[in-house]
Amino acid sequence: MGAADLIRRRGLAGSTVRDLAAHSGAPLGSTYHYFPRGKQQLAAEAVRYAGDLVSTALAGELAAGPVAGLRAFLALWRQTVLDSDFRAGCPVLAVAVEEPPAEGEAEAIAAAAAVFAAWERLLVEALREHGVADAGPLATLIVASVEGTVAMCRAKRDIQPLDDVAAQLEQLLTDRLGSLG
Amino acid sequence: MGAADLIRRRGLAGSTVRDLAAHSGAPLGSTYHYFPRGKQQLAAEAVRYAGDLVSTALAGELAAGPVAGLRAFLALWRQTVLDSDFRAGCPVLAVAVEEPPAEGEAEAIAAAAAVFAAWERLLVEALREHGVADAGPLATLIVASVEGTVAMCRAKRDIQPLDDVAAQLEQLLTDRLGSLG
DNA sequence: TCCCTGCTATTACGATCGTTATATGGCAAG
DNA sequence: CTTGCCATATAACGATCGTAATAGCAGGGA
Asked: What pTM does this model have?
């Protein structure tokens, strides 16, 4: 889904339906054939698509342990930011910080919430398997801090914040893993 | 500056110059009199204004120590999210996740980067005063995780992530403070 | 062959965008 | 009182927005 790539750069309000369609190789006329509820539905499916991609990668790496999963999660975003020359971030965050439409349901932002929850759940399961107590809040901290750091790197045009946060999270995680009985 | 309030809800691309002007009590015609460089300048000054407000509050609370500062920082965002019924977040993050204009300088996103740096600097100074080593990365983690959590709370329409992250950060901070010689 | 269905291509709608220009008023300086 | 300037108000610019309607095309069952 090329739509996710556009949203993670320009945000949802900054992405036009025409560009979203063109970027996906589809004609404008077909957009409302496949997405009858319009832009909100298009954004929601793009968010779900991108979220599932990350979930799949994260789940795979978490099989090798929480630290490996954390490293892969961070490396994924590091590559996204660097490959785009600090122009692309996370489409899920981009949708989360925008207001839902005044009328109608907030389909896109609800999809973003579901993606966040899915990532946290994967982390929580891996943490619990390795005996980490209070895994929920730790997973929330990891997802939230990575999302925030990616945005911070874009603003600063500097990858240092992501590397710093990576080190902080890894140390925190190893501490929690090391303190199990 | 009423513009910051609109940006933190709708983002920059989602906020029209007309609404930004009207929300500030100023007429549309006067907008380009006070902000000759247009929307980018308006957004940049709104971000700086909001950033300075938070910086002032943060600096004041940090005088009572890093933990007090952290609590105030989190309480400030907690109130913002709750008072707006999960519709408002941080205007600095909202600007940070959007693409700068294709031509011309990226005034708004540069202002966002400066605000992030200012917040981190305040935290770093307070942490160093209290003997915390490696204060820079810890400050980055704090700012980034709070920003990310605020966005996550908006998407989920749930304040729990912020309370969870508050507890995690406070414990992490007290650990670092307690380990000084 | 004919029609029906699923998709594409194109055009168009009214609204609204960022921005600029012009007309209007208040008010200090002379 | 007049003059000149600054800020406001209003209107308008071309472009573009999300969305809908329409016309054209494929192909498969009768």
From this structure: 0.94
